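Quick one, probably user error.
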């Protein structure tokens, strides 16, 4: 891994192909996780609404259901950014910040292949958002 060339320019084609491959793998993983969560919602939590469960279970399951729905929403958002980044690899605009047009740091792309903004613009965007998810911002990408 340490030997891998990170230079752009001559290696840019190869790098783009690598990133596209990575993105497709990431999409597969995300899709698998999404259908797992949806299946969980449909089978494990699907009987909440039939009214036969006792109230304690129902409260716990409603909580669990909310949690699962939140995970599904996060995965759907991630999937959308992966699709978006994949289209950018096809157009050749991958690795360029969508907001300021500067090249995105390769190290950042390494960690977050589906990102479409540079670290500076990302920080600016996050400042505009409510601060509740401050600790999740960098962690949820794993
Ligand atoms: Zn930028």
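Nope, works fine. Designed sequence:
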């Amino acid at each position: 891994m340490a030997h891998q060339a990170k230079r752009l320019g001559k290696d840019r084609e190869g790098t783009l192909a690598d990133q596209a491959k990575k993105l497709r793998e990431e999409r597969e993983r995300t899709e698998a996780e999404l259908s797992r969560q949806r299946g969980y919602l449909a089978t494990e939590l699907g009987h909440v609404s039939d009214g036969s469960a006792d109230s304690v279970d129902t409260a716990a399951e409603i909580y669990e259901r909310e949690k699962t729905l939140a995970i599904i929403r996060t995965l759907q958002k991630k999937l959308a950014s992966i699709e978006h980044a994949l289209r950018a690899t096809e157009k050749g605009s991958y690795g360029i910040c969508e907001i300021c047009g500067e090249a995105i740091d390769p190290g950042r792309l390494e960690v977050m292949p589906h990102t479409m903004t540079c670290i500076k613009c990302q920080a600016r965007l996050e400042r505009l958002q409510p601060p509740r998810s401050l600790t999740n911002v960098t962690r949820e990408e794993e």
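The helical segments are 12-43, 55-91, 106-111, 119-128.
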